[in-house]
Amino acid sequence: MSGEVLVEVAGQRLRLSNLDKVLYPDDEYTKRDVIDYYSRVAGVLAPHLADRPVTFRRFPDGVTKPGFFEKNASRHAPDWIRTVTIETPGSTTGAESLDFAILPDLPSLVWAANLAGLELHVPQWTVGPRGAKHSPDRLVFDLDPGAPATVVECCAVALHLRELLVADGLDPVTKTSGSKGMQVYATVTTTSPTRTSDYAKSLAERLERDHPGLVVSRMAKNLRPRKVFIDWSQNNPNKTTVAPYSLRARPRPTASTPVTWAEVEACRTPADLTFTADDVLDRVDEHGDLFAPLLKKGPTLPR
């Protein structure tokens, strides 16, 4: 299990290790399988990571053991991995800045998978060629169901959100979280780092007023049971959200999966929108990248 193998991936040399180590015991899913998944999904995943600093959630001993978030990639990265230095106010490490990895291609994703970086989290903004932070170009609503609510209730909220966003001239897309909830996204253009958060909050509060038995926009946990919390704060430039197609550290190798609005409308049970890595690869073959609209420049964020 501790053996290493030297491979060449798209012109870059990589040393892979512990390929037979089981990372998802319930499915006997190994690190080899994780690397294979990220290799095969790279064509649709990498464009959504281009120029976005990645925060890893690593599980070197598998999902049944504690994992950890890692932002500072420089100590692991080969010289061909692009890193950018980002200020990190309030970091638990006490560091004023950290060196984040950018994963825009197949070799970079294989490198990350070999670190058992199962989950890839990114902000809603990109960096320029010299590492300067741009204004947000994506709007996200993170829908978190409070038990006994499930992703079924999230779908109902997502459809309400879609109606409001379309009315404002936006083109929303949606995906499962790979865990218990889902997210709704839209591309936007703004010059303000806080405007997306303000806009998302206003829509979340509006839906809470219109659907008080279904939606909550406030973070207090005592308000969440039986409702769907719309976490508009994920638009804070200091926060990240799991990337589309990223694996999740659940008992099985589920992934954050783009879905069609027809699938959202048809959802009746959580199983309807639960997808493993193998399911995702089949869906990419069938649908291509359902998140492709996010790769286009968005309209000006409405006021």
Polypeptide structure, described:
By secondary structure, the protein is of the alpha+beta class. It has two domains: 4-122, DNA primase, PRIM domain, CATH 3.90.920; 138-295, Alpha-Beta Plaits, CATH 3.30.70.3300. Helix content is 26%, strand content 23%. The chain is built from six helices and 16 strands. The strands form four sheets. Strands 5, 6, 7, 8, 9 and 15 form a six-stranded antiparallel beta sheet that branches. β3 (22-24) and β4 form a beta hairpin. α1 (31-49) packs across α2 and α1 (31-49) packs across α6. The N and C termini lie far apart (56 Å). The model has no long low-confidence stretch (mean pLDDT 95).
Q: Multimeric state of these chains? A: single chain
- Overall number of strands: 16
CATH topology of the largest domain: Alpha-Beta Plaits
Radius of gyration: 19 Å
What is the SS-derived class? alpha+beta
Mean of the pLDDT scores? 95
The coarse overall form would be globular
Taken in chain order, the helices and strands follow as EEEEHEEEEHEEHEEHEEEEHH
CATH class of the largest domain: Alpha Beta
Q: What's the domain count? A: 2
Q: What composes the largest sheet?
A: 6 strands, antiparallel
Q: From the coordinates shown, what is the CATH architecture of the largest domain?
A: 2-Layer Sandwich
Low-pLDDT segments, ≥5 res: none
Note the total helix count: 6
Distance between the termini: 56 Å
Percent of residues in beta strands?
Answer: 15-25%
In helices, the fraction of residues equals: 25-40%
